[in-house]
Task: inverse folding
């Protein structure tokens, strides 16, 4: 037995042990507890009343749908602003592009609450009222680097021989972009969409600070229930949100596989 333990600790397989412990404590057990609380009542009895409560309350459903809408708008705006930025960075001088990428990522070194409070102060300075517009602005400001970097990374690694071949065959710049560059950059686009959509649909601090609690997102609803010791209902809401995120992730994976099967070009 001692020899087996010694062999295990001396092998590379032992390197995975810290990651397994971390995953167990901070991922697997919390997810298991969410599922348990979601399907039980205060007395620990199995029930689906928590989910029935959600579907019987129009306010909760409206908040859920509204949160999806805000997340979609934020993702679309980040895509329209982030793709040109990533395109410009990938086609600029190597030294300058690396510097600009660092400048885009630099705000991420600051805590999201500090950045959001700074945004609130900025709106107050210019006497701009807080509300839905401020919420979307804050979401885009906080999450647009997550859209820019994966697209930039994909464009940087793209095989430019495809572009040269298309140009040799007489394709104009628009045709080169839409038939070669954009399809090849889709893995980065899908990664950026997921990295923006998933956190925006679950956030609550940005909405609370930039709307003065006048606009409630689904994350805020979950937080309120947890703070009010309504663990079972809060866990059910969390599970619903996790299922939505999982479905979105599976849809994204299917799109990537279809693009790869088609060659990723046409």
Result:
């Amino acid at each position: 037995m001692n020899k087996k333990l010694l062999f295990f600790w001396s092998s590379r397989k032992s390197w995975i042990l810290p990651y397994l412990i971390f995953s167990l404590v901070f991922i697997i057990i919390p997810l298991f507890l969410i599922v348990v609380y979601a399907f039980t009542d205060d007395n620990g009895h199995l029930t689906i009343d928590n989910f029935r409560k959600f579907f019987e309350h129009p306010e909760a459903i409206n908040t859920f749908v509204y949160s999806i809408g805000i997340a979609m708008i934020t993702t679309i705006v980040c895509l329209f602003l982030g793709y040109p930025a990533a395109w410009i960075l990938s086609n600029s001088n190597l030294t300058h592009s690396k510097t600009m990428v660092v400048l885009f990522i630099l705000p991420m070194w600051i805590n999201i609450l500090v950045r959001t409070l700074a945004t609130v102060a900025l709106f107050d300075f210019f006497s701009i009222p807080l509300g839905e517009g401020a919420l979307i602005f804050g979401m885009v400001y906080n999450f647009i680097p997550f859209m820019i970097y994966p697209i930039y990374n994909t464009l940087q690694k793209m095989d430019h021989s495809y572009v040269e071949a298309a140009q040799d065959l007489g394709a104009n710049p628009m045709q080169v972009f839409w038939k070669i560059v954009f399809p090849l950059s889709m893995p980065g686009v899908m990664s950026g969409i997921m990295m923006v959509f998933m956190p925006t649909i679950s956030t609550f601090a940005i909405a609370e600070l930039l709307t003065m609690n006048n606009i409630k997102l689904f994350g805020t609803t979950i937080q309120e229930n947890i703070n009010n010791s309504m663990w079972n209902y809060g866990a059910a809401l969390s599970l619903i949100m996790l299922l939505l995120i999982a479905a979105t992730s599976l849809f994204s994976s299917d799109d990537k596989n279809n693009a790869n099967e088609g060659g990723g070009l046409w």
